[in-house]
């Protein structure tokens, strides 16, 4: 039997934390996935504590998704390379303006056969015109990408309300 797939959520804002809640809960229910879901958190201080410490101890992202408990198997990691290097599936949930820097940081440090899925809103505007964020990530990292789109509002997803989503 193949080793369970390791998942990394790249981003921990409102949308990233909502997705981490769902992915974390689902990972423990399916033997095809490793129980631990890593979530890269841009480290910042909240009420005198590191945000990663708050998430890992209290299981809540009190800054970006207050009032929603994250599963205990969601591990907040402040180092992007450490969070993503052993992942089989990378879930990109960051503001589009940070895609370039994030990709440059992990390029050559992730599994070459990793799969990615972009939950990023927006497009990239460059000298060649508009480009899909998933195309930018695929070109920079050389990994296969998919995209999740739909009428998704982070707090409603975290509340496990009905949402319509397409993955392609």
UniProtKB/TrEMBL annotation:
GO CC, alphabetical: cytosol
GO biological process, one term: glycerol-3-phosphate catabolic process
This protein's record includes keyword Cytoplasm: yes
EC number: 1.1.1.8
Major localization class: cytoplasm
Enzymatic class: oxidoreductase
Keywords attached to this entry: Cytoplasm, NAD, Oxidoreductase
Classification via InterPro entries: G3P_DH_NAD-dep, G3P_DH_NAD-dep_N, NAD(P)-bd_dom_sf
Glycerol-3-phosphate dehydrogenase NAD-dependent N-terminal domain segment(s): 6-167
Subcellular location: Cytoplasm
Keyword Oxidoreductase attributed: yes
GO molecular function ontology, one term from the record: NAD binding
PANTHER family, per database record: GLYCEROL-3-PHOSPHATE DEHYDROGENASE, GLYCEROL-3-PHOSPHATE DEHYDROGENASE [NAD(+)], CYTOPLASMIC
Family, per entry: Belongs to the NAD-dependent glycerol-3-phosphate dehydrogenase family.
Protein name: glycerol-3-phosphate dehydrogenase (NAD(+))
């Amino acid at each position: 039997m193949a080793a369970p797939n390791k998942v990394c959520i790249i981003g921990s804002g409102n949308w990233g934390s909502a997705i981490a809640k769902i992915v974390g809960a689902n990972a423990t229910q399916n033997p095809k996935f490793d129980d631990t879901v890593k979530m890269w958190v841009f480290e910042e201080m909240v009420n005198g504590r590191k945000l990663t410490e708050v998430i890992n101890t209290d299981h809540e992202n009190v800054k970006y998704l207050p009032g929603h408990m994250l599963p205990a198997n969601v591990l907040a990691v402040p180092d992007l390379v450490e969070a993503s290097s052993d992942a089989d599936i990378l879930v990109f949930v960051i503001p589009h303006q940070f895609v370039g820097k994030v990709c440059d940081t992990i390029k050559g440090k992730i599994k070459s056969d990793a799969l990615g899925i972009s939950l990023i809103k927006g497009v990239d505007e460059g000298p060649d015109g508009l480009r899909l964020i998933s195309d930018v990530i695929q070109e920079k990292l050389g990994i296969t990408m998919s995209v999740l789109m739909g009428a998704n509002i982070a707090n409603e997803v975290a509340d496990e309300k009905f949402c319509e989503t397409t993955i392609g």
